[in-house]
Design brief:
Length: 398
């Protein structure tokens, strides 16, 4: 699918090859994920990775770039992002500089204009000079499309952005092309490998999902998580790492605002290793739980539960009586082996679903039918400035 004009070693030969090459770059993938990655390259489709924070979504894109020798271009999404700027920007500074330098030439053009309207008309005729490739600053999406080398385009945490961004991206995801109304359409000579990630704080549009291979990346099973921790050379003895993985998985079963991700397990292992832990007792875990839990309420819940999560923990000394209240501490028996709770105990996914109800994105928001379809424009063209303006008006109106 790629590399016609710029051959690169074909990315992956097989699913096993995916697992091996990712592992060589420090990423432990299970077979299900490896199949998705393999298909992503073979079918040339974008992939959408959804799942809780800290399960390796962003890391996968980085490692894919490293493992295939491709350049990584990353669009980090955020709330209130100007959707058109995700694609490109006009270099206003450069445009201004050129108009200053060309002042005399511009004066000549309008010198014999009979009135203001005629002068404006003549300047307008020169639009094409200033809205041309020379003054275009490509943002990651357009850069990936224009790239002459194969690239990995990471569109990270798209759920943070407004839905309008999804609409703007559809053309790129569909056709590997980006239209700049003033110039024309850029079509990728070498289609980038596109990875979108979402932390699942809101539902993404069906239109976006339809265009992507989809994968829900959940917390790994204990075996793979231990393998990941091992691969990070944390310095924590294997037996303790295995125990720690078990504890973290139990913590994920609590009603935490932010469940610990894989990176937190790794951080905790490192912290315990630095402290020279010879065994994992409740007290040591409680003393270091702040390494992985960043909200006070989460920490409190964890401190209540931890004495019940390690052998002999119940007898461990507790701080301020926090661990003395067994009423709120979930028994491990309430938690499935995979770290998920029963249906009556909301797990992370249920909490995220609840967050969806909070309406980060206003009710009745309408997706524009295309990047420029909704805007009035002169000469059949509409520019980024107009789109940026309408986006700003929309935001102000909220
Ligand atoms: N499968 C994996 N193999 C190796 N390390 C991983 C894996 N998954 C996650 N990690 C580690 O966890 C960290 C956090 O992952 P990240 O990709 O930032 O999570 P997400 O984007 O899903 O929130 C990474 O920097 C990496 O060190
Ligand atoms: Mg991420």
């Amino acid at each position: 699918m790629t590399g016609i004009s710029h051959p690169v070693p074909d990315a992956f030969e097989s699913v096993t090859d995916v697992i091996e090459k990712l592992a060589a770059h420090g990423y432990i993938a299970d077979r299900r994920l490896a199949i998705t990655v393999y298909l992503l390259f073979r079918l040339g489709k974008p992939v959408l990775l959804e799942g809780p924070a800290g399960v390796g979504k962003t890391e996968l894109a980085k490692v894919l770039a490293a493992a295939t020798g491709r350049r990584l271009l990353r669009l980090q999404c955020y709330e209130g992002q100007d959707e058109s700027r995700a694609l490109y920007e006009w270099d206003y500074g450069k445009q201004l500089l050129y108009t200053q330098l060309l002042r005399e030439k511009i004066s000549e053009i309008v010198a014999d204009a009979p009135d203001l309207a005629a002068a404006v008309e003549r300047i307008g005729d020169q639009d094409g000079v200033f809205f041309s490739d020379r003054f275009l600053s490509p943002r990651p999406v357009l850069e990936a499309i224009r790239s002459r080398e194969p690239a990995v385009l990471l569109i990270d945490e798209i759920d943070r952005a407004d839905e309008a961004l999804e609409a703007v991206l559809l053309e790129c995801l569909d056709e590997y092309q980006v239209s700049v109304p003033e110039i024309g359409t850029y079509v990728a000579a070498v289609p980038p490998c596109v990875v979108l990630t979402s932390n699942n704080t809101r539902d993404l549009s069906a239109a976006l999902k339809r265009r992507c291979l989809h994968m829900f990346l959940d917390y790994p099973d204990a075996e793979r998580e231990l393998e990941i921790v091992r691969s990070k050379h944390t310095g924590l003895p294997d037996a303790l790492a295995a125990q720690l993985v078990g504890v973290v998985r139990e913590l994920r079963g609590l009603r935490l605002r932010k469940s610990p991700g894989i990176s937190e397990t790794v951080d905790w292992a490192r912290a315990l290793a630095v402290l020279g832990a010879a065994e994992l007792d409740a007290q040591l875990l409680m003393e270091t739980a702040n390494v992985v839990l960043k909200y006070e309420r989460d920490l409190k819940r964890a401190l209540e539960a931890l004495p019940h999560l390690v052998p002999g923990g119940r007898a461990a000394p507790a701080e301020e009586g926090a661990a003395h209240d067994p009423r709120r501490a979930p028994s491990p028996a309430h938690t499935h082996a995979n770290g998920h709770t029963h249906a009556d105990e909301p797990d992370g996914r249920a909490v995220r679903a609840a967050m969806d109800q909070l309406g980060r994105h206003e009710v009745g928001y309408r997706l524009p039918s295309g990047p420029s379809a909704a805007e009035p424009h002169r000469d059949g063209r509409s520019g980024q400035g107009q789109r940026a303006f309408s986006a700003a008006v929309r935001r102000r109106a909220r």
